[in-house]
Amino acid sequence: MANFTLGDRSPAISKAQLTGDENARRIRLVVSASMIGTIIEWYDFFVYGTAAALVFAPLFFSKASPTVGTLAAFATYALGFAIRPIGGAVFGHLGDKLGRKTILVTTLMIMGITTTLIGMLPTYGQIGNFAPILLLVLRLIQGFGAGAEFAGAAILAVEFSPRDRRGFYGSWSQIGVAIGLAAAVGVFLLAQKLPEAQFMSWGWRIPFLLSSVVLLVGLWIRVRIGESPVFEQIQAENKVARSPLMEVWRTQMKSFLLVVGMRFADNAVLYIPVVFTLSYLKLRGYPSDVGLIGVFLAAAAQVIFIPIFGSLSDRVGRRPVYGGGALAAAVVMVPYFWMMDSGNTWAVWFGITLLGGCIYSALAGSQPAFFSELFPANLRYTGVAGAREFGAIAGGAIPLIATALIAGYASATPVVIFVICMCVVTIFAVTLAPETRGKVDAIKT
Asked: pTM value?
């Protein structure tokens, strides 16, 4: 099959690559639209993850023992990730057929509405077995919508950016992850200031209900942006793929599998410190706010370091930054759990910030441009969303697997080995991936 490049001769591309005030405003608007969507997506997911670690076991699985209840809560968390590849494939396919903007508005609404509805659910004590069933149904719908949200937001930012700044501007979609995480933790910290009886009765609902406010802001921003200039040119040249999903399966399987492999460390480096560690510290007798403060500090570090690593990937390449982050995570895993077991609050905060804040940022900052550039422009949404979310299944399972390992072995050592193995898979995938920095967009025909 022929491989055609999108050159600077295109009016749409030239317009997006102009310098000056008009282009700067356009990029700022697109970056804002990209970031607000990821804020909502990850606010919603982190609110759910935090609630799964702290309150869902007694509220929705109260007949089970504390350990089994926590496992059940994390199982619903994991199932939300299991459905994400389906959402990624469906919405990614439509994004390559209909455009980036339409799908991004749709997925944003799905995420915001389902999270708000979770905050309105009756508990097990009120309606019995229907409570966990409804929780699971809403979680699956939430995961389905989230399947293409991040990929679309990242692609939109990358495709509006100058080619030599894609790492930097693309990384801002990941800053939305950090802000969503900080917002979720911050709201939970405030809600926990309530007396315990009030928090368990209605206070836990506040973080979920606030999603509706962020949803309205996100929709207002997203409806104001235009379509990606890259997709506009694909339409103008009549090169929209007839069946993006089948074309990715037939021609892009190597890139697809590489992205899946590179997601292993990305998932572990995020979900161990910001989700699993919350329940782990609870088992170790720490007050619940110790872990939440640590996660908040990690999110603050991400806001600083993600754009730094994104910009660094524009200078030295995507592979060194991404692979370096996976290697650093593998090296840090043993001392990380030493710090969690130390009994020292400051050591806990430092460990969570180091792993979940600084090291994770190397992976997050370089990822949007790296993954987007691995796929041809007219198959990009399908490829990135499908592969990224297929790899995300591991992310949803990590807290569940880690909790089961702790319960079975009464030691963090198996968890350390498990995470190091995930990092090794990513390092291997990075060594097989091509360097994409400075790559010209291509259309597969």
From this structure: 0.79
- The encoded tokens of residue 175 equal 């800053």
For the four alpha carbons of 411, 422, 392 and 31, in that order, the dihedral sign comes to: positive
**Among 372, 432, 406, which Cα is nearest to 283's?**
406
Domains in the chain: ranges and CATH: 16-438 (1.20.1250.20)
Residue 89 tokens read as: 């494939």
Identify which of 253, 228, 209 has the alpha carbon closest to the alpha carbon of residue 169.
228
Per the CB < 8 A criterion, the answer to whether 444 and 3 are in contact is: yes
Residue 443's H or E segment, with its range, is strand 442-444
Q: pLDDT tens digit string along 163-216?
A: 888 999 999 888 888 888 788 878 888 887 888 788 888 888 888 888 888 788
Q: How many CB atoms lie within 10 A of CB 11?
A: 11
Which segments of 239-379 does DSSP mark as H helices, in order?
A: 244-251, 253-271, 277-283, 288-316, 318-340, 345-352, 360-373
pLDDT at 2 over 60: no
Computed on alpha carbons and rounded to an integer, the radius of gyration of the chain in Å comes to: 21
First to last CA, the chain: 6
In 119-148, alpha helices (H): 124-127, 130-146
Number of C-beta neighbours around residue 180 at 10 A: 25
Contact 159, 228 (CB under 8 A): yes
Q: With a cut of 50, say whether residue 53 has pLDDT above it.
A: yes
The answer to whether the CB of 416 falls within 8 A of the CB of 251 is no
| Cα–Cα dist 93/195, whole Å | 48
Is 22:29 a contact under the CB 8 Å cutoff?
no
- At 295, the amino acid letter reads V
Residue 254 to residues 66, 257, 260, 279, 385: CA-CA distances in angstroms?
43, 5, 10, 37, 15
DSSP secondary structure letter of residue 240 = -
The Cβ of residue 126 has, within 10 Å, a number of other Cβ atoms equal to: 10
Count Cα neighbours of 35 within 13 Å in the Cβ-side half-sphere: 17
Tell me the C-alpha distance between 374 and 369, whole Å.
9
Calpha distance 422→266 (Å, rounded): 9
Q: What is the DSSP letter of 354?
A: I
